[in-house]
Structures are given as C-alpha cells and as structure tokens.
# Entry
Amino acid sequence: MGTDIDEIERRRIMMKIMMEMINKAQQKTTTKRELTRDEVIQLIRQMTRGDRAGEIIDNALRLYGDTAIQVFKQLVELHLSGQLSELQDYELYQILERVGLHVPLRTRIRIVRHGREESIGSSDD
# Structure
C-alpha cells in the first residue's frame, strides 16, 4: 500500500512540473513582440545571400505587398528560432513560387562576338 501512495505522489509531482513547463512556454510566446514591417524587410535582407536577392525581395514587395511580408515574416521567424540559418536567392525565389507568388526577374541576354558584348538588336556589323 505504501508503494501505491509513493506512485500517486510521484505522478502528482510530475503533473505539477509539466504544468509549470507549459505555463513557461506559453508566457514566452505571449511576451514575444510582433515584428514590424520594416524589421521583417531588414531581417530578410540580412539573411538572404546572392546577387539577385535584393531584386527578388523588392519585386515581391512591389507586386504582392502585405502577402509577401507574411511569407518573409515566416522565414524570419524560422531564422530567429534557429531553424533556418541563411537563404540563397534562388531558394527564396523557389519558396515564393511555391506559395503562388510569381516574381519576375529582369533577364538580360548577352552575346559575345570576337571578345565584344553585343545586344540582340545590334546592327553595327
């Protein structure tokens, strides 16, 4: 009978500890402040790498506004929690495409003839 009381007491203590842990976790999530639009943009620029990252971010913001901010905010929160270190420009582009935000990029075709760069419409031959 003594072992039953010990087991009951052990379970009661474990439940109390679990409840304290849950309460602490809830307090952390409620005390975390919301990131502002400017903070999200600044952080997404800091965590992205690559030549086209700035162009992708600017075009997404121009075309999709708050929707792009929401996607960027999710990525920034993953970064701040340590689940995402940095993002390459092509990865950001793919993520935006997968969520349905098509971001057109300026495409430039270069033709090099005899060591000189020429445009497609060039007629100076």
